[in-house]
Specification:
Length: 191
């Protein structure tokens, strides 16, 4: 059957998204940070807040992927698969925006270049949100009359999502600030 092998490849790609959503690495991409005035926090406080914001996001993305995988395996029509994938993408968009807003609310680290680091984190999450938004629109446009063409289209949409989502990943271990690297390494919320 065409549907299952193609969707297995596509959902495996989606599960990789959850893996890069942790504090030790993150999604990347363009997008505005939405940063307004933010108060400074110590490096330790800021790292804990950021990882505290990312933990629920990572869990939600993982849960959405698992739920979609179960539903798609049981799906019998392209219409059902499309509906379930659209729910996943909408959920990923919502979760990414919530995480972005929480990182903005975390303020900025009171270290040299802290405002730039905070902007990079929020821009990265905005990029993840936008990647889900683009994929949702692309998937919505796929016709379902030809099952093989639909599932080929799904694989293409999810491949683009993976590429947008992981482009320019943000890795706290590569931050220029030794104080922030130490803070991310030591924060309980980041484990």
């Amino acid at each position: 059957m065409v549907r299952r092998p193609l969707l297995r490849v596509a959902t495996i790609g989606l599960s990789m998204l959850a893996a890069v959503a942790g504090c030790s690495g993150g999604p990347g991409g363009p997008g505005g940070s939405g940063r307004g005035e933010r108060s400074g926090a110590t490096a330790d406080e800021w790292a804990a807040r950021v990882c505290g914001a990312l933990a629920p996001w990572r869990k939600q993305i993982t849960d959405l992927n698992a739920q979609t995988q179960r539903q798609i395996t049981a799906s019998s029509t392209p219409e059902q698969a499309k509906s379930q994938l659209l729910e996943l993408l909408a959920g990923g968009q919502t979760a990414s925006e919530a995480a972005r807003a929480a990182v903005v609310a975390a303020g900025m680290p009171d270290v040299e270049g802290g405002d730039e680091v905070a902007d990079r984190f929020t821009a990265t999450l905005a990029g993840a949100r936008d990647a889900y938004t683009h994929a949702h629109g692309d998937l919505q446009a796929l016709p379902v009359q030809d099952a093989k063409a639909f599932y080929d289209g799904v694989v293409a949409v999810l491949t683009r999502l993976n590429q947008e989502y992981t482009a320019g990943g943000l890795d706290p271990s590569r931050l220029e600030s030794p104080e922030l690297r130490r803070a991310f390494d030591g924060a309980l919320q980041c484990r």
